[in-house]
Amino acid sequence: GAVVSQHPSRVICKSGTSVKIECRSLDFQATTMFWYRQFPKQSLMLMATSNEGSKATYEQGVEKDKFLINHASLTLSTLTVTSAHPEDSSFYICSARDPGSGGSYNEQFFGPGTRLTVL
Amino acid sequence: GNSVTQMEGPVTLSEEAFLTINCTYTATGYPSLFWYVQYPGEGLQLLLKATKADDKGSNKGFEATYRKETTSFHLEKGSVQVSDSAVYFCALSDHGGANNLFFGTGTRLTVIP
Q: What is the pairing mode between strands B23-26 and B107-112?
């Protein structure tokens, strides 16, 4: 199946700094990528939908100036957490939709996630 | 709106036991339904899916049937193995063109030898 990677897998930063997380589709071109946030014992919450070459669409309640998303190529999307605070500590997961997966549903392939800890 | 409710875990079973993880949904249209599995340290993987009422998705001995009348998509396996230990997520995808996924809270399954 299609592979999506994320980097880094784990990051610890100081409060007030910015952190960039990369999401790559390794063997397919993804016109659409998604960013999720997962809290302990809770579901994945969609943060934003990223389309290559255009601005990301953010879900209600997600601060677009705090969570900057760039989808500069068909294989790379980045999420930058700006001026991070302890409450931003979470597990961030990306997914990429493979337009070649066919049918009415284009399957999303998920990255392994990035654990962010803000001190 | 769209939402998914699945049984809370954790679930602990002995090897070869029967597994059921309940999942119910609410949706504004005619969603597709999915079960994803997340093994330790890995990303979510699609386990099975069903795109219309009465469809049965199956994979690796797991199966789930799309029940429109009860708005359910319960996951079952007749005989679990230690290697099935993971977190299982029920999800739906709307058909409004976005194909966005709405997830349940996940159920952690531990299978003991």
A: unpaired
